[in-house]
Prior knowledge:
The structure holds 2 protein chains of 2 kinds. Chain A has helices at residues 5-17, 69-77, 100-106, 123-134, 139-153, 170-184, 202-215, 254-261, 265-272, and strands spanning 30-40, 43-54, 58-62, 82-90, 93-94, 108-111, 188-192, 219-223, 237-242, 245-250. By secondary structure, chain A is an alpha/beta fold. In chain A, a hairpin with a 2-residue loop joins strand 9 and strand 10. In chain A, helix 4 packs across helix 5 and helix 6 packs parallel to helix 7 (202-215). Chain B has helices spanning 5-13, 21-30, 35-50, 58-62, 67-74, 80-89, 94-100, 111-122, 130-136, 139-143, 154-162, 395-403, 408-424, 429-445; strands spanning 126-129, 167-171, 176-186, 193-194, 197-202, 207-215, 220-225, 228-233, 238-246, 249-253, 256-261, 266-273, 278-281, 284-287, 293-302, 307-310, 313-316, 322-331, 336-345, 353-362, 368-377, 383-392. Chain B is globular and about 65 Å long.
Amino acid sequence: MTTNSISKKYMLFYINSVKDMNAWAFELPELKLENVSAYLGDKQIVKNFSARISDGELHVLMGPNGSGKTTLVKAIAGHRAYRLEGKVLLDNENISNLETNKKALKGLAIALQEPPSLEGVRVGEVLIKIAKKFRRLNDMEVSKFVKDVLNVVGLDSDVLSKYYMAEFSGGEKRKLELAKVLIMNPKVAILDEPDSGVDIDSIPRIASTVSKLLSAGSSVLLITHQFSLFDYLRPKRVHIMISGEKVLESSPDIIDELEKEGYKVVKKYGDRK
Amino acid sequence: MVIESRNLTLMTDEVLKDLKESDIVEFSRLRKEPKWVLERRLNAYRYLKSTRPDPQIDPFLERLAYRTIIEGYLAPVIDFNDAVKYAEKIGMPKEELEMLASGLSVTSDNRLLKAYLKFMESKGIKFSSMDEAVKKYDIIKDYMFKLVTPVQNRKFAYHVMLWSGGPFLYMPKGVRLPQPIYSIFTLGLEGLSQTEHTLIIADERSLVNWIEGCVTPFKMNYGVHLGALEGFALKKSSLRIVSISNWYGNVHHLPIKRLMAFERATAELSTVGFWAKSIRIAPQIDVVGRFGKGVMQNIGFYTKDQRVHASPKVKLIAEDSKAMVLNRTVVMDEATEEFRGLIDAKKGARNASGFMSCNTLILGDRARSITVPGLHSEEKEVDLSHEASVGRVDYEKLFYLELAGFTEEEATWMLVSGFFEPVLSKLPGALKEEVRSIVSLALKAH
């Protein structure tokens, strides 16, 4: 189902009022991963990952370095290097075999952790083209819109004339990725460590960007190592992935313990279960 | 102006290699050229007769008949109304044509143009067609055919023997004209060769920005571009030339480009090459003055079964001279590119420095590129370096753009136009945007 932003706002109001209810009056964007496995050559990197990210909620995916989080993201997006098995359902439509750009047009936006530098390509050119693709704006409106979005993520509008990525620090790249996702107005956004390498002052900014996405009706899967983000954001569910397997899905209550004790709490939780 | 019909038939029926010395004399006489020009033509003719055919040059020219010469004589200028028709065909807006018309290969009664020419005249700028200039200005004698000599090789000899038309520009001492001067050359008749000769003299402390474009107004079965450009950047002057070529049909692009930079002068040649059946270019800049600088840049976009041989060369002869060669090309379909750049520091070029960078992007599986950067020095204290890369479009970059909803094709073109950007951004201000828009138009049209 396609939703426009006005009805999304209304829905959000509705969601807030009926939080934790199981029955929904409206259908909201939903990304369902069913037994998703990702292979690099013959090597299985992600094993049978399942999750349901829906209803304009924030989900968090955590796990130690090298546990396969980024691979999962790239495989879902359709990166050529990875082979994907299992189902990726966006609003109950299987999109796992679609081309990467079709997935984006269907409403799946992904912020990469390490975006490549695009030699000679200017930021303004790319962002404005994206805005034209995803938003119905005329030439006049589009540049103002893009500037506003840059403002939201905490970038000056002079970045528009800079070359894509080559002239940016790691933190600025992450912010640009967030801006891209905001412009794309997705049903579901997957943010791969938007907080790595950014300064402390930017953490609230990233949190507010994520809130902005949520309030626009997007469901968000956030991959992060930064516990300070949770001072500002309250996820609906926390998924924990270790060595390519999802070992735990929990309520956000686990976060405090996780911060204190590290991933060994997972075992404890497992025992408790 | 009456041309005897006898001559016309004679000339039309015979091919180049049967050309007689008396034909050259007759041709020159009809053109009312000064004696020294005829001498150069005859030198070239004799050189051609005394040397063996060059397999890289002669096959292209053998198919051309004397028509080349006679047409060049009969129609050295194109009527403005024709030019408007051409412009419509190649999709050029009329306003732009009015600017381009200032190349004087085109005659026009346009007022703006006339005012502009008057302004140039008031500054002492000499700007006319070569045909007139050889009769009018003595200064030409000291420069013309000094770099493109009749006896250097067969390509040069053919050009000197056959040349007709082309613009002449003399920028007087201390006159700096940052607005680019445009010229456009069109191949107007089937089976023609275009043999215009361009001579630009930038006198001391002057500044010249020159854009020339080569186009065909209609699809040609066979054509050869054998034009030449000689440019002199005298002491402390700055001469920047941008040459854009995009032919239609089976045109072989064999231009000659030679520049010379004197003391503290900058000679810059930027070439932008799109379609031509084959391209064979060997532009050269000689840096003969201390602290002189020679810059050669090329953007190429080669498609279909295009064959390209490019061997740009910067010769450093003076102390503290500088050279830069940048080459950025995209090769796709079944096109083949061979690039052999050379920075050559001669004896006496102490403290000279040079940098060469050649990067090629290959699209598809059947395109080929051979890149051979060359550095040569006869002096010890010379600093020469190069970097080169030949590669495909990085998948990670495509993936990244596809993530943002662009198709693979859209993403590829964005990356291709970005690939040219490092060269485009080095062009001087006024030229930068012009060339950028031409490149993006050409990419869009593809």
